[in-house]
Amino acid sequence: MPEVTYVQADGSVESFDLTPGKSLMLGAQSNGVPGILGECGGQAMCATCHVYVDETYLDRLPPVSEDEDAMLDDAAAERKPNSRLSCQVEVTDDIDGIVLHIPEEQLW
Amino acid sequence: MVSAPRVVIVGGGHAGFHAAIFLRSGSWPGEVTVIDAQAQPPYQRPPLSKDFLAGKQELADGEFRPASFYPEHGIELITGERVAAIDRTARTVAFAGRAPIRYDELVLATGSRPRALPVPGAELDGVQFLVTRDDAAALRERLTTAERIVVIGGGFIGLETAAVAATAGKRVTIFEAADRLMVRGVSEPMSRYFEELHRSHGSRVVLSSPVAAIEGAGGRVRAVVTADGTREKADLVITGIGVVPNDDLAANAGLVTGDGILVDAGLRTSDARIFAIGDCARFSTRYAADVPSVRLESVQNATDQARFLAQRLHDGFTAAAYDAVPWFWTEQFGRRLQIAGLTSGFDRFDQVFAGDGQFSIFCYRGETLLGCESVNSPRDHMRARRTLAAVEAPVAPRP
């Protein structure tokens, strides 16, 4: 199973082997990873699962939809070129080893 | 020595779950107990009528957190237990089969339940609600074999399930008592757009048609009959005619209720130690143009009220009044309808088209924007949310 690493704003790190086909947000929630709130349940409606993606993996991810794009503009933490909503990215074998940095703020 | 204060939260839906999470993430020093009548740990509701029903997600995916999360994070989670009564003098909640639990602050997040269909035959096998995950699992199972489906009630839940059924190739009929769909939630032009959308996918939409009876044979549903005598055969009937707030517990404890538990700008009930949040809470809001108070049944309302209350408990009641912008969404046939604000009571609207299948309806009362209903136009939605929020927030009363 693909390994996904979540890095907290304070630098603490947790890695998990996740089931392909689920989102990176669900992977975080089912393992109790703090800082990824996912209040809307993965519908790209709330921008509380914002992550910064390890740059080397960026081009392996699906494109940003208009919904995700609009929400990222309104995320609590600064939007960067490697910003994604973790509910909109599926775990695949292709992203084995991906590292996600969780911003300090998910809420206004 | 004074023991750490204990917050007891009754209800583990979106509101109750998030109240516990926000208390803990805000470093609330006391105890946090969540009590829920359902047997499972708290879970997400929105996917139940969308991705789960369509077979794109499983029940386990909807759990907010694994069961192990709660003890690890200092949240006492009591599942499968129903609070029977509140003793406001002793400050305890009582159960039928276990010892009472003491509280210092009590949060009622008791949610709502589906309005029962008041017609003969509503109890027949094959007549389903969709509220809990058990309901959703049963409905998904039924949908695999059912061919003729009648949806009673053209609100969000009814229409979402109708869309899933029609997409799966079922023959779908929607009966709505009002003269348009989603009558409580959206403006008329938006109702007409979704009416046409459902028709274009082969569903029959029958308006101004309250249901008079459900016919059965051998205990199983066979047909739905409307007030004007129209009879539609059905092997599965889905009812979605609204919800009623679970305010009995509060009313029986002598709290002020009236289609919901009445709360002030700090989400406090008529008892200073008891709060109500989510579907069950009735409150005044500057976003409502044509009614003195509202009860909002939404993920946003549940989550934002939970966040506000957790902060208010934590900082000793100095937070401003609850003032979050209401927003809602629904998805039907790949069209995402997003609503910012409460548009009811508008006297004019601007419809703005952005492209194929993309438009927004901005609703105004005089010069004031009441809200915006958008189809596949997330930027309009977010702009409206910001506009609505950009007014000085009122201040909540101190205890």
Your description of this structure?
The complex is a heterodimer of chains A (108) and B (399). In chain A, a hairpin with a 5-residue loop joins strand 1 and strand 2. The termini of chain A are far apart. Chain A has one domain (3-101): Roll (Ubiquitin-like (UB roll)). The mean pLDDT of chain A is 93. By secondary structure, chain A is an alpha+beta fold. In chain A, 14% of the residues lie in helices and 19% in strands. The longest helix of chain A is centred in the middle third of the chain and has 8 residues, at 66-73. A 5-stranded mixed sheet of chain A has the order 2-1-5-3-4. Chain A has helices at residues 24-30, 66-73; strands spanning 3-7, 13-17, 50-53, 83-85, 98-101. Chain A contains 2 helices and 5 strands. With 399 residues, chain B is of the alpha/beta class. Chain B folds into 3 domains: 6-113 and 244-314, FAD/NAD(P)-binding domain; 116-241, FAD/NAD(P)-binding domain; 334-389, FAD/NAD-linked reductase, C-terminal dimerisation domain (Enolase-like, domain 1, 2-Layer Sandwich). In chain B, 22% of the residues lie in helices and 29% in strands. Chain B has a 5-stranded parallel sheet with strand order 3-2-1-7-19. A 5-stranded parallel sheet of chain B has the order 9-16-10-11-12. In chain B, a hairpin with a 4-residue loop joins strand 4 (83-87) and strand 5. Chain B is globular. The relative contact order of chain B is 0.13. The model of chain B has no long low-confidence stretch (mean pLDDT 94). The chains are: A alpha+beta (108), B alpha/beta (399). Chain A binds chain B through residues 22, 26, 29-32, 34, 39-46, 66-67, 69-71, 73-74, 107, and chain B through 18, 25, 44-47, 60-66, 68-69, 72-73, 299-300, 303, 307, 327, 329, 331, 336, 338, 376, 378-379, 381-382, 385-386.
